Amino acid sequence: MSGMERAVQQRDPLAALIGRPTSYLAAVVVPVYAAGSTWFARDSIGNPTLAILALVLVAVASVTLVVQSSPLRAPLTARTHAAIIGSGLAALLLSALSMWDTDAFLRDDWGVPVIGLYYVALAPYRPAKELVTSGVLAAIFAGFLAVLQADSFVTAAPTSVFVIVAATPIVATSLAAAAFVDVLVRGLDRWRQRADRAFTAMTGERGVSIARSVQQDSVTVLNQEVVPFFTALLDGAVVDEATRQRARQIADEVRATMVADVDRSWLESVVEQAARRVDGASETVSTVVRDDHRLAEYMTTDERTALRAFIVALHADPSFVDDGAEIVISRDGGRCELLLRARVDSDLNVLKGPLAPFLAVVRVMFGDLQVEHEQPNLTLRFSYEQR
Predict the structure, then answer these.
(1) What does the DSSP assignment read for 7-60?
(2) CB-based contact 19:47 (threshold 8 Å)
(3) Among 60, 51, 62, which Cα is nearest to 29's?
(4) 385: enclosing H helix or E strand
(5) Please, what are the domains in the chain?
(6) How far apart are CA 306 and CA 369, in angstroms?
(7) 275 burial level (CB within 10 Å; 0-12, 13-18, 19+)
């Protein structure tokens, strides 16, 4: 995903996932509150049809919030934000029309608090600036509607007071939601900068460590094949055609091993390490990575981190069967397409199981993620740009 917005869901997908119960709570509380308020104000309702339509719009907004805040539909877009708030404003209008000229007290109307609750629920998913802009526009609409209704209110007060009463809850909740988002995103950005500095400082040490690891691998190969061969020669072995053939075979094996180490991509290393972490000292890795053009190198650091985390979690899952699993990366125009196939032998839907948080992160990083789980086969498809 390119150009991530300054939203909590996109900067810290797991934090948004943890806060998702707020969406469920809002989806339940808001319709119940609206329905209860409508029932208690039934004597003031002149048009029951409009009142019912207002409740229907509230239900639609609540369902949209729950469905679109799902981790596998992440990120929640500006269009969804507009749809939810727009449905709330339409419900506010219909509720006001249902009590036109009969609404005695503005403070008893449920439309404004409902919109405020939606802003609280949307906080983890949208940027601060968008929440503020949307909140101000919604407050202007609510204030204008209060001005039109002012003649029906029994309270003797200036029209400006009604405007303040109608607009304040929306402005307050949208600004509070925006402040929460801004503080959290700024904190995440500061943490990211410190992490990047630490990573840069460790680059030299990491290079030394990698060089030492490569050296140890080379020494291991030499100890297993080359040293015994030369030891036999020093002990007086006869140099004949069989000996020369054995020398050529050892040279080819050493060359092939070193070329394979050089050609191994970071993705192959991740798969190998994940498999060995689970299987202990096992040298057999069944998961196959097919990346003939080394397209995995085009992933950004964030994309690599998300995919690495999912692969590690997948191999650590007890229901994962490391037999026939494969990762295939191919080129499609200016994008790279990745296909991951694996077996997850579990009756639990992968979208609700232990892998769900990791899929949420992958979904944020790769906006076109498609997940298919027909037990036991799990298939992931997504793409990314060739940067």
Answers:
(1) -HHHH-HHHHHHTTHHHHHHHHHHHHHHHHHHHHTGGG-S-HHHHHHHHHHHHH
(2) no
(3) 62
(4) strand 377-385
(5) 8-193 (no CATH), 205-263 (no CATH), 266-385 (3.30.565.10)
(6) 12
(7) buried
Q: What is the pLDDT of residues 14-48, one digit of tens each?
A: 667 777 788 888 888 899 989 998 888 887 788 88
Which amino acid is it at 15? A
pLDDT of residue 140: 93
Neighbours of 167 (CB within 10 A): 21
Report the range of poorest mean pLDDT among 174-183, 335-344, 351-360.
351-360
Burial (CB count within 10 angstroms: exposed 0-12, middle 13-18, buried 19+), residue 336: buried
Q: Among 109, 98, 91, 96, which Cα is nearest to 46's?
A: 98
**H-helix segments, the chain:** 8-11, 13-18, 21-40, 48-68, 78-98, 111-122, 128-149, 159-221, 227-234, 241-263, 266-279, 301-316, 356-365
Q: Concatenate the DSSP letters of all residues of 313-342 into one string.
A: HHHHSTTEEEEEEEEEEEEETTEEEEEEEE
Separation in Å, CA 337 to CA 46, 276, 383: 58, 27, 4
Name the one residue in this structure whose structure tokens are 């069967």. Answer: 321
Q: Is 379 helix (H, G, I), strand (E, B) or coil?
A: strand
Express each pLDDT in 240-299 by its tens digit. Answer: 667 667 767 766 666 655 555 544 577 887 888 777 766 554 455 567 888 888 888 888
- Let me know: does 221 contact 257? Beta carbons within 8 Å: yes
Report residue 89's pLDDT band, with 50, 70 and 90 as the boundaries. Answer: very high
